[in-house]
Amino acid sequence: MTIRDYIVSFVDPSFPDDAPLPFPVSEMRLKKNHVLTSIGQTEARAYFIQQGIVEISMNNDGNEKILEFFFPGQFTCAYTSFLTQRPSDVRLTCLTDCVLEMFERRHLMEAYTTSLLANQIGRYATEQIFLMRTKREKEFLTISAEERYLNLMKERPDILSIIPVNKIAKYLGVHPESLSRIRKHIS
Amino acid sequence: MTIRDYIVSFVDPSFPDDAPLPFPVSEMRLKKNHVLTSIGQTEARAYFIQQGIVEISMNNDGNEKILEFFFPGQFTCAYTSFLTQRPSDVRLTCLTDCVLEMFERRHLMEAYTTSLLANQIGRYATEQIFLMRTKREKEFLTISAEERYLNLMKERPDILSIIPVNKIAKYLGVHPESLSRIRKHIS
Predict the structure, then answer these.
(1) For residue B99, what pLDDT is reported?
(2) Contact B58 A173 (CB under 8 A)
(3) Which of A152, A177, B2, B15 is deepest in the core (most CB within 10 A)?
(4) Burial classification of residue B18, based on how many CB atoms lie within 10 Å of its CB (0-12 exposed, 13-18 middle, 19 or more buried)
(5) If interface means Cβ-Cβ distance under 8 Å, which residues of chain A face chain B?
(6) What does the pLDDT read at residue B134?
(7) What's the pLDDT band for B95 if we cut at 50, 70, 90?
(8) Which residue in the set B83, B116, B129 is minimally distant from A119, CB to CB?
(9) pLDDT in the model for residue A132
(10) Contact between A133 and B137 using a beta-carbon 8 Å cutoff
(11) Cβ separation of B112 and A135 shorter than 8 Å?
C-alpha cells in the first residue's frame, strides 16, 4: 500500500489517479536496524510504511521499553516530538528491511494551512494512532499479560515469525521468561 | 473559552467573529454527577468544556479506573466509541457542574467531507488527545506514582481543591492509602 492507496481507501475514494499529493514524498529503502529517529533528536519527518516493520522504543534507566510496532499501511514517526518540536524521548528503528515514503514536517505543516485533503489525511492518521494507544493503555489497565499476548497473536498471527520473542516481551511489558511460561501454558 | 475562542487561538487566528462554525453547537448546563455517556452506549456526541471538569472512567471487574480528567478549553467524548461506533467501554461523568458546547457526531462527519476548518479543528483536537494519552502511558512506564503525583500537582495545582483524593488515587493507579503516604512524604 502507498499513501495514494491509503487516501483512496480511507479518506477520499474519488481521489484521481493522476492528482498530485498535497505534500511531496520520496521513497526510501532502508536496511534492518537503521535508526530513523534517535532519542534527543527533534522529529522533522514522517513516514508511511510500504514494506517492513518499524519499532518505537524508549529507555528507562537503561531498560528498553517497546511502545509500538508499526506495520505496512501505517504512518509513523516520533509523533510527540513531531507535534511539539521538543527532543524525542523515543527511538524509531527499522526492525526489518523497510520501504518507506518519507515526507518533511515543514511541507505537511504548509499543506495543513490550505489543503482539505492534507487535513483529512492528518486527522484520520492521528485518529488511528489515538485508537492504537488507547487500546494499549486499556489493555494494560484491565487484562493480564497472557490475554495481551493472545490478543496480539489474534491481530498479528504472523508476528512471531518476524519479531524476536525478547522484543515481544518488551512490548507486552513482561520478562522474557514470563513470556516463555505464557507460551508454554497456551500451547 | 468557547469553541470559537479555541479556533482563533489554535487553528485559524483570522477566523471572523461573525463567521458560522462548520457544525451546529448547542450549550448545555449540567449538574455534578450527570452521566454524559454510559458504558455500553455508542457515542453520538462530543463536547467542548467551557466550565467544569469531566471524568472518563472504566470498570475492571467492579474496580473503577479513571483514565482522564478533562478541563475547560478541551474537547471530550468517549472518543474510541465516537470513532469506531462500537459500544463505549468508558463512562463520561460531570465531576462538577459543567457548561458545555455539544455537537452531534453526524454533523461533524458531514462537515469533515467538505470543510477545511472542521478538519483542522478535528485534527488539532485529536493531536492534543494523542499527546495526553501518550504522556500518561510514558509516565506509567517510566516514573513512580510519587513522581506522577508531583507532575500532576505542577500541571494542575488547583486539582486537589476540586477533585476528591480517592479519584486522584484512581487516576494515578494507586490505593488511596498509598496516595496518603505519598502526600505525607512530600509535605
Answers:
(1) 98
(2) no
(3) A152
(4) exposed
(5) 58, 60, 65, 67, 79-80, 83-84, 89, 112, 114-116, 119-120, 122-123, 126-127, 129-131, 133-138, 140-142, 173
(6) 92
(7) very high
(8) B116
(9) 93
(10) yes
(11) no
Query: What local confidence, expressed as pLDDT, does residue A63 receive?
Result: 84
**Is A127's CB within 8 Å of B83's CB?**
yes
Compare A178 and A114 and report the one with higher pLDDT. A114
Which pLDDT does position B157 carry in this prediction? 86
Backbone angles phi, psi at B179, to 5 degrees: -65, -40
Contact A126, B123 (CB under 8 A): yes
Q: Alpha-carbon torsion B159, B165, B168, B172, what sign?
A: positive
Give start and end residues of each alpha helix (H) in A7-144.
79-84, 105-114, 116-142
Asked if the ipTM is above 0.90, the reply is yes
State the average pLDDT over residues B27-33.
98
Greater pLDDT, A112 or A145: A112
Helices (runs of H) and strands (runs of E) counted in chain A:
8, 8
- Searching chain B, which residue's CA lies closest to the CA of residue A11? B113
Please give the average per-residue pLDDT across A66-88, as a whole number. 97
Residue B123 and residue A137: Cβ atoms within 8 Å? no
Strands in A63-70's sheet, in edge-to-edge order, are A35-37, A91-94, A54-60, A63-70
Instruction: Judge contact between A96 and A162, C-beta under 8 A.
Output: yes
Are B127 and A67 a contacting pair at CB < 8 A? no
Radius of gyration of chain A from its Cα atoms, rounded to whole angstroms: 18
Global confidence as pTM: 0.94
Cell of B54: 469531566
